[in-house]
Amino acid sequence: MHRRFVPAARGTTNALSPPTALAALSALAVLSAGSVTPAAAQPAAGQGAPAPREVTAAEARTDAYLNPVRDRPGPPRDFFVRLPKGGDLHNHLSGAVSAEYLIELAAEGGLCIDTATTTAVTPPCGPGTRPAADARTDRAFHDALVRAWSMEGFPPGQSGHDHFFATFGKFGEVTWRHRGRMLAEVADDVVRQNQFHPETMVAPASDGARRLADEVGRDDDLAALHRKPVAGGKLDEPVAEARKEAVGAARTERAGHGVDLVHEDDWQQTARTTAARRIAVEVPFTSNAQILGGKGADHPFTVYRRYGVPVVLATDDPGVSRTGISHEYAYAAAAYGLGCPG
User: Fold this and answer.
1) Mean pLDDT, rounded, of the chain
2) Per the database record, which ranges form the Adenosine deaminase domain (predicted)?
């Protein structure tokens, strides 16, 4: 496993000045721990978060700016875009670019769209399909594809789990053909979001996932195929086992999501080990909310902070979720009161 380092924040042209930039980065990297946490979620004596350090003058100036605007509807987006950020450490290339960009790639590649399923398919366009290029001139068709290939317009308050994961099968014929173009688009977004460390993932299936796939078998009914590994909690055990192995045996340096930590057996020990070994948990708030409904008090974010577990903000699949790393920072500041130390 390769150790990754995120470059330190630096001042940029038309961005925050260097002292303010560093202060702002610290302000959103060190989170206040004032949230109420159930007794069961309290760490053992002597195993809590590190003692707070002295606040620097630059951090104090940043906090003085952020505090008055924190509780306004939607903290100023420009502040969080200009905020120097290290890297989005949990980002899947297959879901990283916008649906609009994928539609244009499909059109350029001469792909077709199955009108019944809104799935990209190879040409020629036979009965029941139409050219993806039609989306350039047919706005209704274009918007229908955007909704089918992302969480755009998905009703709030409903579980988006099935719709979220169905998107990958719909645009999959596009993404495998254009990884280079997609990577370039991700790199451009790194610049737009004022980040200094580009990183994305193209991950093969794990052995545990393959075993589960062998057990579930094949089913041409995709909805039924999806229900099989979910039914009876078949996914829960391999996920929990993988996390324990990663933390305990593999000496991993980072862990993704971690939304269901508090529902696992002996999760407190896992949290203490994660904190002691300084294993960072990658938290994509928008994705967690859309897929699992984990947001606000239902998200273990404050538990991680209470145990002293390092937390980094991420996007997961920003193209599907219709989000960006700056939005994740803004959400965290508003929902959890991120601020300077102290």
Assistant:
1) 78
2) 241-338
